[in-house]
Request: fold
Amino acid sequence: MDTTLPSANPEEMTETIGRLFNQPHFWSRLLYAVLLLLCCMVVMRVLNALVNRTIQRLKVEKSLHTLIRATVKILLWFVTIVVVLSYLGIDPTSLIALLSVAGIAVSLAVQGTLSNLAGGLMILGSKPFKVGDYIDAGGVSGTVAEIGMVYTRIKTIDNKVIHVPNGEISTEKITNYSSQATRQVELRFAVSYDAPVEQVKAAILAVVAAHPKVHGDPPPFARVSAYNDSSIQYLTRAWCDNGDYWEVYYDLQEQVKAAFDREGIEMTYNHLNVHIMDK
Reply:
């Protein structure tokens, strides 16, 4: 008897399955199909164990573990169902067609989620940042708290947690401030034209060199960077450990100002001098 399902019509599939029960030796074939299913389940368990072991050896990102395992399970179950149906004499083509139609409908309904999922896979694969890094991505700055498959959780400095869609992060520029062991502190000071240049540079470098968390190599840098309308701008650069960046930044801001006060160096601001001349 022909038991091929001609289309993905559920009524025709039901009718064909009903005819199977009237076939001779059906129950014996069904028993063998159950045994075949059990054998396939044993093989599935072995393959799942191999996949888990491979994931652990390759040190795959934890957020990707669940997706890989779920995908492998779905594929193995799909293959198992196709094998069992084929043994029972049911052509699985119709089932595949029905699942394809359902898959297209679902993918259209969750298009945005799939975009974020693809972005999550790109992030987990390329690893532009990891949990604990301070980043600027998707218009948000903060510490990465969790990298999910759809969203990345970022904790801001003021202790807010923002869920940023991975689709936005993967298509925009990502700045990772924690990826390197050291970081450069860059400061600019506006000083009066009346202050000698060498005196100002010496005062800045003395403060920078005295800070215990500033590296001596590369050496600190202080030079004139611009002549503004009301002041001379001095550019200062110093290197420190990444974790000490903000401490060094604020310390130098305050300590340089104190050194200028001791040296009688005026930190000026935009102003206009008006000279009145008698005729």
Summary: The first strand starts at residue 134 and ends at 137. DSSP finds eight helices and eight strands in the chain. The chain has a mean pLDDT of 80. The radius of gyration is 34 Å.
